[in-house]
Amino acid sequence: MSGKTVLHNNDIVQILDYQLFFIENLIYYCTNVQGIHLVAKNIFKTVNGRKKILLNHVDLDVQSNDFVAIIGGSGAGKTTLMNAISGFDQDFSGKVTLNGADLKHEFNTLKDMIGYVPQQEIIYENLTLHKMLYYTARMKMPKDTDKGEIEKRIHEVLEMVELTEHQNTFIRKLSGGQKKRASIAVELLADPKLFFLDEPTSGLDPGTEKNLMQLLNRLSKTRDKTTIIVTHTTQNLHLCDKVVFMGPGGYLCFYGSVEQAKMFFDTDDLVNIYNIVAQNPKMWAEQFENCMREEKARSEQQSEKEQMHKKKASTSYFKQLITLTSRYAELIWNDKMRFAILLLQPIIIALLLWLVADEDVYDIYESTQSMMFSLSCSAIWIGLFNSIQEICKERNILKREYMACLKLPLYIMSKFLVQMILAAIQAILLTGTFLVTVGKFREGVWLDPFTLEIGITVWVTILAAMAMGLIISAVVKSGDKAMTLAPFVLIVQLLFSGILFKLEGAGKAVSYLTISKWSVEGLGSIVNLNDMELRMQAQIPTLVHEVEDIYKHTGAHVGMDWSILAGMTIIFACISGLALIRVKKDVR
Prior knowledge:
Elements: H1 9-32, E1 38-47, E2 52-62, E3 67-72, H2 78-86, E4 93-98, E5 101-102, H3 107-110, E6 114-117, H4 129-140, H5 147-160, H6 176-188, E7 194-198, H7 206-222, E8 226-230, E9 242-247, E10 251-256, H8 258-265, H9 270-279, H10 281-301, H11 317-334, H12 336-356, H13 365-387, H14 395-404, H15 408-438, H16 451-475, H17 479-495, H18 506-511, H19 515-526, H20 555-580
Parallel strand pairs: 3-8, 3-9, 6-7, 7-8
Antiparallel strand pairs: 1-2, 1-4, 4-5, 9-10
Helix pairs in contact: 4-5, 4-11, 11-15, 12-13, 12-15, 13-15, 13-16, 13-17, 13-19, 15-16, 15-20, 16-19, 16-20, 19-20
C-alpha cells in the first residue's frame, strides 16, 4: 500500500449520514432560533462625488426586544442610518449583520424578518381597514394559509394596535394617529421580529404621540419585537430602552439609555443635547468612541454564534396576482367619484363628437377621416387619463411591498387586467353613444354593420394609451408631475398621426411609433375611406380619389393594425415594469 486511505461504500454512507445530520440541525437552528441581534460596523456613506458625508463611520449594536430611538437635528443622517441598517439602502461602505448574516448579501432571505413603516402612509385610503389587512395578508402570508388563519391573524394584529372597533371603517375616515397605527398593523401581519418606523409620531398631537410610543414599547416587551424609530421629539423618549444621537455630518455622538445620555452630556433636559451636539459633533463622536472602546473590545472578543434565516413565506404567483387584481378593482370601485368620471367621460366625449359631426359622415372622405381621427384621439386621452397617475400615487406603498414580497411583473399585470376590463366598458360607451347619436352605419371588413369592429379598434387604442400612461406613472414620483406630461404626450399623437400634416423623412419614421397612426389606419380601413367621395368631387366630377394603402379595406390590414396596437401595449407594459425597478432606490 502507498499510504493512501481507501474509503469503502459503508464509510462513504456513514460520512454522508453525518453530513445530512449536520445540515438538518443547522437548518433547524437557523429557522427556529429566537431573538434579534443587529450589528452595524463602520457605516460610511457619501453623496455628490464623496463631497458630502451623510454617515461617518457609525457603529451600532441592537439587542433583542430593544426599543431604540434615532434622534438628532435636521440633516444629521437619522433616516439615512435607518435605511442603511434596515437594508433599504445598500449604497454604503461598512457592514450590517442580522443574527450574524450579512444584510446586504442576504437581504432577500432576511427581509421577511424586517418590517418597515416609512413616514409616508403605506395604506390605501379607499379600502376599509379590514380589507387593507386582508389583501396584504394574502400576499405576505404563506400560500397554504387558509382564510380562517388569515382572519385570525388580522384579529390579533387589530388587537395589538387597538383598532378592532375600526376594522370596517374606510381608512380615509381614520384620524392621523389611527392611520399611523393602521400602517403599523400592515407590517405586523407578517410578524416581523425587527421593526423600523420613520418618524411615526410626526404630525400627531402630544396625547396621540404618547399613546403611539406606549404602543411601540408594548410591542417590544410583550410581542417579541425589536423596534427602531426615527423621531424629532423628546417628550416620550423615556419609553425607549436606548437612544441614538446623530450629529451634523453623520457623526454618532451617543448610543445608550436616556439616563446615560443625560450623564454623558451633563444635562437634565434631552432638548439641550441638540444644541450641545451641534456645536462640535466630531468632538462628541470621538469622546463617545473613547468611552466605549473598552466595552467594544470585550464584545469583539466574543465569537458571533448567532445565525438565523427565518423560513421564507412562499407565496404563490397566481395567488398574489389574484390578490393584487382584487385589491386594485376594489380601490377603483370604492373611489365612487373618480369611477363615475371614468364612465361618464366617454359618454360626454361621444356626445361632443356628435355635436361637431357633419351630416355627411361615412359619405364624404374628409368629414369621415376627421371624425375617425377625433375618435382615435379621444380613445388615446381616455387611456392616458385612466393610468397616468395609477402608480406614482401609491409609490410609497409599492416600495414597501416590493422590498417585502411584491413581484413587479404581477403588480403591472394586475393594473393591466383591471384596466383591460375598464377600457372595454369605456370603448362600448364611447363607440355605442357616438354611433347611435350619429345614426349612420356602414358595412365593415367582416361584419355588417361595423359597430363591433369600430369598438374593438377603440378598445385596443385605449389599452395602448393606458400602457403608455403606466410608463409615465412608473417614471415620475408624483401625480402632479405625471399630469403635466399628459398634454405633451397627446400633442405628439396629434402631430405625428399623419392626418394634420403630410409626414416625410424623420417625421414619418416617428409616426410609426405613435398609437394614433395605427388607430386611425384601423378606423379608416373599417369605414372604407378609400370608397368615399372627396368633397371636391361634387364640384369637379372628373377628379379621381386615389386609393391609399393605409386604408385598405381588408381583414388582413385591420388585423395588422390591431396586432401593432396590441404589441405596443405589451411593450409599454414591459417598459413600465422595468422602470419600476428604480423604486428600490427611492429616498425620502
